[in-house]
Amino acid sequence: MRMEKWAGAALALAAAIFAGGCSINRTSSFKWLAFPLSWRSVPSDPTQTLREKAESGDPDSQYKLGFSLLYGEDMPRDAESGLVWLKRSGENGYLKAQSALGLLFLKGVPDIDRDDREAAVWLEKAAAQGHVVSQSSLGALLLSQTSSVHDSEAGVVWLKRAAGQGDAPAQVALGQMYRNGYVVAQSDTESVRWYRKAAEQGNTGAQTQLGIAYYRGKGVLQSFDEARRLFEAAAFRDDALAMSNLGVMASRGEGMKQDAELALSWFRKAAEGGYADGQNNLGAAYYKGIGVPQDYGAALAWFRKAADQGHASAQFRLGLMLEAGQGTDPDTSEAAVWIKRAADQGFPPAVNRMRERGAAPAPDPTP
Questions:
Q1: I want to staple 339 with a disulfide (CB 3.0 to 4.6 A). Which of 1, 77, 157, 319 is the partner?
Q2: Is 343 inside a domain boundary?
Q3: CB–CB of 98/122 below 8 Å?
């Protein structure tokens, strides 16, 4: 099966920095702003006592009163007043209030709009106190190319502080950034170092990415055995990319005996989990009759599922099958659409085919 890197070129961190599907020669996307808001619910203090303590300047009571009002816990909901009390608590240096305000403005909640600048102010206050989630959230916000407070250099600083405190998502992001040379100087060795730190904490994404490094021999000595071990550890925890990669290794006999049926099994698990690479590889297995009787109809269906997710190789293969009428009636118009989509992503076979036919793919977008 082909496993080459044709995913979208835009790096996105926090969904806006790294984007695109993954295979052994592609890296996974990272969803960086998915930190949960967490606070302790208001204890059984009478409402009046809580308000009196808050008005006396107690930051913990201000924090609890703020959330009680914001979410209507034990008192009528009043988001505006709740925000006022949270800010008073945060201005008094209360870490929980600062971090909560940062995340509230970062995400936006009912009656509180997302505000990158406000989020940055409060996250920085909490981050300066060593709060790791605030450090990583602030780093992601500053690195985001769509953020109104974009500052790549400062973002890297905060991300490294979080990673240095053992924050696995920050470590994974740094591994991705060093691998791709985004903001930092490209370094496979540094990439592996950060992936390893997160993998040792059981982070499945890091295990898969470290496995890819061992598979390709990037930043480490190539080792199919170590790649397989890492992929299996991640696949055991339902990582679809690791499953797809194990399928590739089984189909090629890398780090294990060549086994078409085992490969098919891994491709199917990844595909049924909605993973585009797994769908594309399963489609290829049906197309070629590897580990399963050849079935153009099934191949076409799986290629279409992956193509719908933007998988360039699947888009090209789908286009060729539609053009040739394999598994369906010929449809040259739809075929041309899919081949062009693959070419517009820079997929070489599609680009070459477009050029041979006198049509050029869309140019890369201007940064």
A1: 319
A2: yes
A3: yes
Amino acid 73: pLDDT:
85
Q: Is residue 56 part of a domain?
A: no
> Does 319 reside within a domain?
yes
| Contacts of 8 by beta carbon, 8 Å cutoff, 6+ apart | 19, 20, 310, 345
Q: How far is CA 89 from the centre of its chain?
A: 33
Question: Could you tell me if residue 336 is inside a domain?
Answer: yes
The string of pLDDT tens digits covering residues 278-322 is: 999 999 999 999 889 999 999 999 999 999 999 999 999 999 999
Q: Which residues contact 338 (CB under 8 A, 6 or more apart)?
A: 307, 315, 316, 318, 319, 322
CATH code for the domain in which residue 292 is found: 1.25.40.10
The model's pTM: 0.77
Residue 17: CB atoms within 10 A of its CB come to 26
**Residue 223: which of 200, 249, 204, 205 has the closest Cα?**
249
Residue 296: give the domain boundaries. Answer: 284-367
